[in-house]
Amino acid sequence: MTHPFSPLILRGRQLLPIVQGGMGVGISAQSLAGSVAREGAVGTIASVDLRHLHADLMEQSAKAVHDQAALERLNLIALDREVKGALARADGHGLVAVNVMKAVDSHAAMVRQACESGAQAVVMGAGLPLDLPDMTRDYPDVALIPILSEARGINIVLKRWMKKGRLPDAIVIEHPKHAGGHLGAAHMQDIDSDRFSFQRVLEETFELFKTLQLESEKLPLIVAGGVNSFDKVKTYLQGFGASAVQIGTAFAVTREGDAHPNFKRTLAEARPEDIVEFMSVAGL
């Protein structure tokens, strides 16, 4: 495929500089992730509540509605199926990742299941993933990708991971205002702060790499949030120095997306004022 951008290099793999965002519940699963990977990019499965995509598991869930341990076990079964299904669809192309939220109580079990099922990368946000190298110690070939929003958090993660003898294989920089609700800001009024602008965070992170004596070209930075035009992709990759962009909404409405058709239609037809009204009603 011809394009004007340098490839994203992850674990020796040359990939399109496109990362499909992990969108739950049931929006990013085997169909979407496998299809994106098959095209040579990074496809991502969102690990939360995947049992909803499997009729037999939902039938079992109805019998275990008050048994949290049983529900978590069913979710792990679903995650196993989705990872293996995505890998089959990818057919050796691209890279299949699993997104796990640190804030979820069962995150360690999800990380372990993702690795056991053959996921090629684990992406973790919704909290500082300081112990992700510990959880994946038995799976050294799995790429580890933390999600952060500013250089301060990146500094904390890098220093902690370096003490463990492990560096991230890439870092996703999510803008707290635009990246799917994963707020990296302590207060809502902070989401417009310049400290979260991609240009500033990238510049500060490259300076951090120099301070820590890390080679920036070996630690890709992936920007996420509001990437909705070719001009933005070009600016972030060629102007600001990012290695890849993460895209969510554009993939969510595709035929290959795992979401219900009604969801896709509603999202595709949404107007800006509809989104503003929704955020107001939701208290966002």
Strand order of the largest sheet: 3-10-9-8-7-6-5-4
Rg (C-alpha, Å): 18 Å
- If helices are DSSP runs of H or I spanning 4 or more residues, what is the number of helices? 11
CATH architecture descriptor text: Alpha-Beta Barrel
Main beta sheet strand tally, sense and closure: 8 strands, parallel
The fraction of residues assigned to DSSP E strands is 15-25%
What is CATH's topology name? TIM Barrel
Report the structural category. alpha/beta
Instruction: Give the CATH class.
Output: Alpha Beta
Order of helices and strands: EEEHEHHEHEHEHEHEHEHHH
User: CATH superfamily name?
Assistant: Aldolase class I
**Cα separation of the termini:** 40 Å
What share of residues is helical? Answer: 40-55%
**Which segments are poorly predicted (pLDDT under 50) over 5 or more consecutive residues?**
276-284
Number of domains: 1
